[in-house]
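HUMAN: Quick job: go over this next protein and say how the chain folds.
***
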Amino acid sequence: MPDPAPCPWIAEATPESFPRLVLENSRKGPVLVNFWARYAGPCLRLWPVLERLARDYGGRFLLVNLDCGRHADFARGLGVTSVPLLRLYRDGEVRETVHGYEGEQPLRRLLDRHVPRPSDRAAALALRRLEAGEPEPALAALREALAADPDNPRLPAAYAKALIRAGRPAEAAAWIAGLPRALREREDLDTLRGHAAFLAAAADAPDEATLREAIAADPSAIEPRFRLAAVQLRADRIDEALDTLLETLRECGDTDEHDVLRGLVALFRMLGPDDPRVRRLRPRVAELLR
């Protein structure tokens, strides 16, 4: 494998330089690590594609090559068992992985999900205006950024979060619900939708005693149960909210309006898969869905 022509956005890693080149740099911007070996034909085909991308993107990501033939033990320690393998690092963590040879266009789509774009700067400036107490100009600027760069995958979540921070969670949930299915079902947006639905339900909810009276009067009604869970979450009583949502799902089912299942999933994501409450309740939710 010939060495690439000198390029400031391409680096060769060793076990000693990997933490600096990859982990530290990934806190400044995306780092794409190419785990390769001279003996693997697909690696030789992938090499010029990656070099071309590094040059085309002009420093918006760093390409780091690690020769797994020379550093086999180190690569195995990172879980690399076959080459080529690409990992995109951001903030010290692996965000995406590609096994085997991949063509230029799919790799461009992968990079575009992570590299900074001009519309990201516009969004950052808009969020500063939001923090300065100017919600309407901030939201207008974010809408302009969305219109100018609809392919930026970070802008929809930024706009939804801005609506929530501006005190308009119901609008945020409705806006996400109106997105194309492939977009609104993306994990971050689906979670935001669940979060916004809870905030909206708690915003004008009656007191807890009134909600429990409404549940007792009509046990099949979803709305007072969902609002009760939202009120419990607002008070940071997460265990009670989880139990309320599970009971609602068992007694009443789910509707698009109240998003009981979406709310449970959003809470599961927030708590993480290793949380004992998630481990306890996830099988029960699956059983109810069956």
